[in-house]
Specification:
mainly alpha, two-stranded parallel ribbon
Length: 330
């Protein structure tokens, strides 16, 4: 019996459709169809995974002369008991490439969101000071158009990046089993990126910290309610946007290495916590975002409302910690 026939027999014996088997192997249904039609054969990593899923040895799958399934060497639990997903060297390189590609675009999207109210702040401030011959509604309208356009561009970047990396989401949520060479390759690339990560993270944090200096300077040396306060606020947002861009980009790339090594935020323990508290995180950050936008648009004090994010970040740790403590008690 050839490999194609064995895959068909074992799949049907377990009562799985081609779609279900494809999902277990993280391949397309067309790939399963080609294997079963003897039009192509799976690579060695998929052969190993097939042996684990079906509970047979790789020898049985690869050797046509073996007609009776022989037990796989070592333990071969069912997929529900062994949720670890196999990651090949090709998978790891593809994932890291996509993450690096997305990192700059996601960071740019975040930067555009922060910069989006700059023109609105400037036109509204200039109108109040009588520097431009516009009514309050006209100044607000001129400022809102680029705000909406920039946020729209940012949302577009987030969606396209999410679609590009969607098939790799399981790496961040499920236990992984990396094949030979993957761990060493990831560690080598991480060490090569380490100085860049440290430099960009440090510069980003410094920019966010010193971003308040233009506002303080305008308060000390400028006249009250002068154009300098408006310009200083815009400069502050620009510095924060640049700092956040550096932080987000470097953190996404660094995080991709942690995902494959299952370290830091992506350790197996943290993945279990994420499965338990993922919905809580979504609700929390949705409320924070809604509160930030409501406060900002009602008061138009964008130079003050940004403080919501660092406070929310600190409180998020406390909220998750309390949720974990309550779960353990139960």
């Amino acid at each position: 019996m050839i490999l194609a026939d064995k895959i068909i027999e074992l799949r049907k014996k377990n009562g799985w459709s081609q779609e279900e088997l494809a999902e277990m192997l993280d391949v397309s249904r067309q790939s399963i169809s080609k294997w079963e039609g003897a039009q192509s054969i799976p690579d060695m990593s998929r052969i190993i995974r097939l042996s684990q899923i079906f509970g047979v040895s790789t020898d049985y799958l690869l050797k046509d002369e073996l007609e009776a399934p022989s037990a796989a060497e070592g333990p071969s639990p069912a997929p529900a008991d062994d949720p670890a997903r196999t990651v090949t060297l090709e998978d790891a390189n593809t994932f890291l490439g996509i993450k690096e590609f997305n990192a700059g675009r996601v960071a740019l999207g975040v930067m555009l969101c922060i910069l989006s109210p700059v023109i609105l702040i400037f036109t509204s401030g200039a109108q109040e000071l009588g520097l431009i011959p516009l009514t309050e509604d006209q100044a607000a309208g001129i400022g809102l158009i680029p705000l909406i356009l920039l946020i729209g561009c940012a949302v577009g970047l987030f969606i396209t990046c999410g679609m590009r990396s969607s098939r790799w989401e399981f790496l961040e949520k499920e236990p992984l089993e990396t094949l030979y060479g993957v761990d060493g390759m990831v560690r080598e690339r991480r060490e090569s990126f380490r100085p860049v990560y440290a430099r960009q993270l440090t510069l980003g944090i410094v920019l966010c910290v010193i971003a308040v200096l233009p506002v303080f300077s305008a308060m000390m040396f400028g006249k009250e309610e002068s154009v300098w306060e408006v310009v200083a606020t815009c400069c502050m947002l620009a510095m924060i946007a640049l700092g956040v861009l550096l932080i987000v980009r470097s953190s996404i790339i660094w995080g991709s290495y942690q995902v494959l090594l299952e370290e830091g935020d992506y350790s197996r323990e943290n993945k279990d916590d994420e499965r338990r508290f993922g919905s809580l995180s979504g609700i929390y950050w949705t409320l924070v975002t809604a509160g930030y936008l409501a406060w900002s648009f009602i008061t138009f004090r964008w130079h003050q409302t940004w403080i919501v994010w660092p406070i929310a970040g600190v409180l998020y740790g406390a909220v998750i910690g309390i949720a974990k403590a309550l779960t353990r008690k139960q």
